[in-house]
Amino acid sequence: MFTADELRDLPVVISAPRFATYLRASANDVERALELYHWNLEVSAAFIVPLQVCEVAVRNGVVEAIEAVHGPNWPWSNGFIRSLPVPRLAHHYNPQTNLRSVAALEPTTGKVVASLNFAFWEKTLTVGQDARLWIPHLHAVFPGIAAATPAPAARAGAFGALQHIRHFRNRIAHHEPIFARALADDYARIREVIGWRRPVAANWMDKVERITGLLAARP
């Protein structure tokens, strides 16, 4: 699969510390380690599609709930901004700061929505929003969540799922190895969240995703 030049130079391009992870997983066989590295690239790329659909599905559902309470100009509503959680430590992500800074630059709600961090949508799913947003609106904006599940429990589960997905997304974005993870479980979690918005979308994702085939072909 690899030429002699590639076997010599690719580990240098990847860097010794990064490539060492793949070597350890391949009994120090350079060719096998490069095969694993290439596979890790392929499966990381394959996850981009469901991750993008997941983020869009979540943020659009959250926006519907926010608009039902705070109106279409919610990014500039001080009442909504003050309802967002404040981190205990100053260097941690602050959704209030994120929203204020984005809303100061973008002219429309749609552009604000597209520019907010993934973490912003996660932080709207905290307990402080139960009374305003989630008890009245969660099952309406996420109809794929079982109606029998109480809104606070469903919201807490959604928060945990999004936190897990965000950390996974960040590993891919920073080109970190993901081959040692339970990737089938990662896909199942992403698929479930997409299905909360509309079950049809989760079924469609199963038709277009490449992850399952790549998992079966792991070197």
> How would you spell out the order of helices and strands?
HHHHHHHHHHHH
Q: What is Rg?
A: 21 Å
Q: Compute the average pLDDT.
A: 97
* Largest sheet entry: none
* N-end to C-end Cα span: 12 Å
Detail the poorly predicted runs.
none
Task: Explain how this protein is built.
With about 220 residues, the protein is an all-alpha fold. Helix content is about 70%, strand content about 0%. It has twelve helices and no strands. It has helices at about 5-15, 15-25, 30-70, 80-85, 95-105, 110-115, 120-125, 130-140, 150-175, 185-195, 200-210, 210-215. Helix 8 (about 130-140) crosses helix 9 and helix 10 packs across helix 11 (about 200-210). The longest helix is centred in the first third of the chain and has 41 residues, at about 30-70. The radius of gyration is 21 Å and the shape is elongated. The protein starts with a helix and ends with a helix. The model has no long low-confidence stretch (mean pLDDT about 95).
What is the structure about, briefly put?
Helices cover 72% and strands 0% of the residues.
Task: Give the arrangement of secondary structure elements.
Layout: H1 4-14, H2 16-24, H3 30-70, H4 78-83, H5 95-105, H6 109-115, H7 118-123, H8 130-141, H9 151-173, H10 183-197, H11 199-208, H12 211-216
Question: Which descriptors would you attach to this protein?
Answer:
219 residues, mainly alpha, 12 helices, 72% helix
